[in-house]
Design goal:
Structural class: alpha+beta
Number of strands: 11
Number of helices: 6
CATH architecture of the largest domain: Alpha-Beta Barrel
Helix content: 25-40%
Strand content: 15-25%
Distance between the termini: 29 Å
CATH topology of the largest domain: N-terminal domain of MutM-like DNA repair proteins
CATH superfamily of the largest domain: MutM-like, N-terminal
Shape: globular
DNA sequence: CTCAGTACCTGGTTGC
DNA sequence: TGCAACCAGGTACTGA
């Protein structure tokens, strides 16, 4: 489901609901979600008694800061967090429940079971996978033209695959890459090392603009995304090419077409993007 | 090292 | 209507 704007919206809405709550007990109904420590029982034991002090985000990962530990969570395709009264029935796809000492639960729901959770000693999370390998977020100073152009020069992959590579820039996914490349007027199959510096700058600034505007609008709801207060996003109304195949390009009227790039469904205006 | 292909899962949609 | 094939906001692992 979520790319950076959706994760950021979940972070903000969820923080209001769980800040300063203390975990009394954890239940795990699908152990494969838990990646570190490997044993879910150990995971449960570690988190007992911890208080959620803050939630940060890096790329598409959320980082729950607690007294002694950091919980790193990735929602992958369909993960959701919500806070419920402990008396409410457990839905079918709830896999991890953090029971607070005030009678409420933080529940992790994930139809496809792709999401991940890692627990680290506080401060260690950035030194190890999965956070260690992430590149900068799009709006960080480190995502400069020099940095980005250099990365593009060093690979012969297509530009779409490079933008999806979280080690280059963290947070872009299939929707926002298609939108950014449309805005930058660059074809997704262009080989990265053939982009001019001007094209690289167009792609870079388009990516930053799209992500910032999508955050402002609470993300995009295409099929299932909702934030932690149960609200859908609004940015899907601004999408120009993603999911718009067989409609007219808003710039030139040419029909938007869908193709596969790097195994992912990809939407372009064949006239505007070359 | 880089890269394409595949695996991980469930459910909605499409096409015969 | 039934059912198989394909598709989905993602990433880790494999082997060439």
């Amino acid at each position: 489901m979520p790319e950076l704007p959706e994760v950021e919206t979940v972070r903000q809405t969820l923080l209001q609901l769980v800040r300063n709550k203390t975990i009394e007990r954890v239940s795990v109904h699908w152990g494969n979600i838990i990646k570190r420590p490997q044993d879910p029982n150990e995971f449960k034991r570690l988190l007992e008694g911890q208080t959620i002090l803050d939630i940060e985000r890096k790329g598409k990962f959320m980082i729950f800061n607690m007294n002694d530990l950091s919980l790193v969570s990735h929602l992958r395709m369909e993960g959701k967090f919500g806070v419920f009264d402990a008396s409410e029935e457990k839905p079918k796809h709830t896999h991890v429940i953090f029971h607070f000492d005030d009678g409420t639960d933080l529940r992790y729901d994930d139809v496809r079971k792709f999401g991940t959770m890692h627990v680290f000693e506080k401060g260690e999370e950035l030194k190890e996978k999965p956070l260690k390998q992430l590149g900068p977020d799009p709006f960080e100073d480190a995502f400069s033209l020099e940095y980005f152009h250099e990365k593009l020069q060093r690979t012969s992959r297509n530009i779409k695959s490079v933008l999806l590579d979280q080690a280059v820039v963290a947070g872009l996914g299939n929707i926002y890459v298609d939108e950014a490349l449309f805005k930058a007027r660059v074809h997704p199959e262009r080989l990265a090392n053939t982009l001019t510096k001007d094209e690289a700058e167009r792609v870079r600034t388009a990516s930053v603009d799209i992500i910032n505007e999508a955050i402002r609008q609470g993300g995009s709801t295409i099929r299932s995304y909702i934030n932690s207060q149960g609200q859908i996003g609004m940015f899907q109304q601004q999408l120009k090419v993603y999911g718009k195949e067989n409609t007219g390009c808003p710039q030139c009227g040419t029909e938007i077409t869908k193709l596969k790039v790097g195994g992912r469904g990809t939407h372009i205006c064949p006239q505007c993007q070359s």
